[in-house]
Amino acid sequence: MSAPTNRPVPTHARPWWQRALLTREMLTLAILAVAWVVASATVRGFDGPLTITYLVLDIAPVLLIALPMTLVVATGEIDLSVASVVGLSSVTFGLLFQAGAGPWQAALVSVLLGAVCGAVNGALVAYAGLPSLAVTIGSLALYRGLAVGLLGTTAVTGFPDAWTDGATANLGGSPWPVITLVLAALVAVFALLLHATPFGRDVLDIGRSREAARFSGVDVRRTLLVLFVLSGAVSALAGVYYTLRYGSARGDNATGLELQVVAAVLLGGVSIFGGRGALHGVVGGVLLIGVLGSALRLEGVTVNVINIVIGTALVVSVVAPRVAGGLRVRRRAAAPAGGGPAAGRRTEGDGR
What we know:
Elements: H1 16-21, H2 24-42, H3 49-74, H4 82-98, H5 103-127, H6 132-151, H7 161-168, H8 179-195, H9 198-208, H10 210-215, H11 220-246, H12 257-267, H13 279-298, H14 303-334, H15 341-348
Helix pairs in contact: 2-13, 3-8, 3-9, 3-11, 3-12, 3-13, 4-5, 4-6, 4-11, 5-6, 5-11, 7-11, 8-9, 12-13, 12-14
């Protein structure tokens, strides 16, 4: 009987600095840094303080929605109804304003409505067993139809300056908008939820293997329901911000925003098949899309071209990990079998 060989667990086979730095998330942050430097050097006006202000204001709704979307995608599901929930929340906020409600009351009711929309999606996915792609495409049309039906082609405007100025005000004399504090707080909350709680571990376990998670005691259905409720509620909060940011409540607000959200999440290293993801990568993905969009707009590029760029990035973020995984499989198949030095080197290269 041969002596047992000590083979490291793949996740911890590499040195800690390699596990921390040689990741998809760090690659996204590196690309973000390069994009910022190149844009500052080549795009006129990009390096001014106004860039930071408008960049944060523009990415705020995308980042808000991307936070719960990260957890949803990490389970292997997806929520494509988020932009229509933004529109429905915007309309609800505007109609409540017309009825005489204050900003906090209108915002609370709008967020609660978003949570209900998310609960409908979650119940159909978790308890009825329907695929999330089909469910949320259907609810995308349903919620958008409700939003447009309530207001038609009109818009609610005339919000008090105190409301709209609060959504775009800066912190003192700095270029950082007040919404930065809200974003930082929510990023911290969702990062702790995903990376430092049993709930976050359950989310990743569901993405790796739903059956294994169920047998290990994870309440898969309840977890999915909670995630979709969070997605709906935070999307509605983004709808309130969107309304005050632009001073207009419309049924078609944020149309197509789900493309940017999903692209940011996947660019940030979250696997579309579930089981892996990190919040710092998603934040980097949101900022990367924001920087590209800001630079292209300053260069006079149209929205359609910007959408093409974002769509291309989305396709690349899905295809690249699959190609890399296929190459790793082929390399392993071509490597010598057994427990010799070659096998040990192969194991050490499987950090992720």
